[in-house]
Design brief:
Layout: E1 2-8, E2 13-19, H1 23-35, E3 51-57, H2 69-72, E4 79-85, H3 87-91, E5 93-99, E6 103-109, E7 116-121, E8 131-132, E9 139-140, E10 143-149, E11 165-170, E12 174-179, E13 184-188, E14 212-214, H4 217-220, E15 226-231, E16 235-240, E17 245-249, E18 264-269, E19 279-283, E20 288-293, E21 298-303, E22 318-324, E23 334-339, E24 343-348, E25 353-358, E26 369-376, E27 392-397, E28 401-406, E29 411-415, E30 430-435, E31 441-447, E32 451-457
Antiparallel strand pairs: 1-2, 3-4, 3-32, 5-6, 6-7, 7-10, 8-9, 11-12, 12-13, 13-14, 15-16, 16-17, 17-18, 19-20, 20-21, 21-22, 23-24, 24-25, 25-26, 27-28, 28-29, 29-30, 31-32
InterPro entries: Mitochondrial_GEF_domain (IPR053035), RCC1-like_dom (IPR058923), RCC1/BLIP-II (IPR009091), Reg_chr_condens (IPR000408)
Organism: Drosophila mojavensis
RCC repeats: 50-110, 114-181, 182-242, 296-350, 351-408, 409-458
Amino acid sequence: MLSFKILRSSNWASVHLSRQYTTKAKRVVLSQDQSKIKNYEPKTTDAHANRVYVWGFQETGALGLQTNVKKAKERYTEMVHHPTRLQFSNNNEITDVTAGYGFTAYAVKRSDGLTLFGSGLNTDSQLGYQVKGNKKDPANLDVIIYPTAIQLPRLQGETDEDMQVKSMSAGRAHLVVLTQNGTVFTMGNNSYGQCGRSIIEEEKYSGSALINRIAQRDICGADDELVAVECGQDHTMLLSKLGRVYTCGWGADGQTGQGNYYSAGQITLIGGDIEKERIVRIACASDCVLALNEKGDVFGWGNSEYGQLDDAPDAVTQICTPRALTLTKGLGKVKDVAAGGSFCMALNDQGLVYTWGYGILGFGPFVEQTSKPQHLLPPLFGRNDFSNATTVVSIGCGVFHMGAVNSDGDLFMWGKNRFGHLGLGHKKDQFFPFKAAINGKVLKVAYGVDHTIALCKPHI
């Protein structure tokens, strides 16, 4: 209710305005005002828990970003220098990723029962039998520019859940997949027996529909189960729940750990110093292998040309039997390891990252070789006065580059960068860890020889 009081005078007049509300009217006005407040609901691009970012060399199709063959051949698409969100991850629930030499595999959960997709080089059928054209006269695809389904052969009665990917890893030209029911599938090049089957002289791998299937019991028996697979350049390793390691493939540098330097198509349990140990992690990007037991002790075998496994002056450069490493004894309890082409990494339970060997180790342009593990300072990985609890939680590497993920889900990368696979916006080598701009919390990173894949979850 409004009321006016008019005061008159000879020289002036003023109007006094007052507003009076009843209790009921006041509630009505407040209610009206509240109804005008816009309730903001942010739009989400997809309902999937994970998202994937890719970067690096694109001409092979390994990044899976292109959907047009003509555009994929254009020069400006050769490299992707910044982490770029993969459209395929918007439409599919991706649970795991692995990167080989010029190709990528994705583990997915879908309603149609498909569980494995791949993109990139397929010259050796490392992504299965992929064809285009009519069924009577198909043309084999050596390059797949976007993620395409890889059909895993099923036995009668096997369910979609049985075929979900439990672990997978890619080598130079082969792919190994472990499914939830314990079955191991291998595909691609088997020149050295890396697919766990007999080596056939002059076998042709291009256009091959052969996907080798190996039962879990035939590898580790009925009293154990397989939990992880790890591929080097041309060899394969499988880890069991009881901590045993099984290997096959190229052994010229001793990387199979079978006590010799021969290639082996038969998957074999290895011993040496890990025979009575419970191994929980194996790592290899090329031909040097690191293994970690449950107590945090480090073991190694394979190529040691740069002192990665033994820094003694008279040390052998190829080690064919797993041995306990003495050079990592002073690092404390190690909880993660990684092995590149000529260098190694370790992460202890205090969150300290150690590197050694030869290459860009993260200590600047003037330190390219060290025979003893040296730790990188925590501020290089995001720890500062405003975030003093930030620590590194996982490490990994490719043949020429390294990476570390901190507790905030940030990825820091360094090393060779010829193909832009560090995701820093350029092709220059990076001598110190540098944060990659990824719009998500990094869960896992797959380090290829010339490209990188990050599996993330949204920040919110």
